Amino acid sequence: MTERAFCLYGESLWISPYVFSSFVALEEKGVPFDVVEVSLFEGGHLEPAYRELSLTARVPALVHDGFRLSESSAIDEYLEELLPPPEHPRLLPVSLQHRARARQLMAFLRSDLDHLRAERSTVTMFYRSKLDPLGKAAARDADKLVRVAEAVVPRDNGPLFGDWSIADADLAFMLHRLILGGDPVPARIVAYASEQWQRPSVSAYVNHERPALVPDGYWAYSGTPRPKPA
Ligand SMILES: N[C@@H](CCC(=O)N[C@@H](CS)C(=O)NCC(=O)O)C(=O)O
Prior knowledge:
By secondary structure, this protein is of the alpha+beta class. It has helices at residues 17-29, 48-53, 72-82, 96-111, 114-119, 122-126, 136-152, 166-181, 187-198, 200-206, and strands spanning 6-11, 33-38, 61-64, 67-70. A 4-stranded mixed sheet has the order 2-1-3-4, covered by helices on one side. The chain is globular. Glutathione is lined by residues 11, 16, 18, 40, 45, 58-60, 71-73, 110, 227-228, 230.
């Protein structure tokens, strides 16, 4: 299957915010790793072999020397503890309270803003589509996201906790749903998110080669249930 100690199971369009987070974590740690692309639209994640490997039958999943782990934030935390700072680059802030705040933000980004996620899906980020204006509920989510970002992004628009952390990558990803969609975002938050988008570990995922969409669009894959928006 893989020659390297770390193997990340991702999806084949390179549009998953969760695979993104774990990919960035591996890149930051500087360990060699393989990526296996699972086609969600062909139901690859529902195949017995993948269900055997992933507790949740979702991507990402990390396999490390035979140890299998699902859930992107658990993978991020596992890598941080397995390859701890200062010997290895840090994913989470030094201070206990900053670490708690980073986890707070990561949990929020994974559990809230469903309407925004639906109307500014990651397909719209990476396969530019014509977008309708945000509906009422999604606009409320957008306001909430911007309010949160304004509260946590420091005045100098630099990383959230002084030094970079994986929470910066996760927040920048969510903000780019709006930025790439042409939705209004305050200039200083755009400056923050754009700076994060340039980080080499982040841009390695963002600018990864992607396959063309089938002509009828993203949902035209036959025989598979429509997935939840990522
Ligand atoms: N909470 C999970 C979410 C993972 C997730 O929803 N992955 C999506 C792709 S973005 C997936 O595998 N969808 C297929 C499905 O749910 O059937 C994490 O953080 O890893």
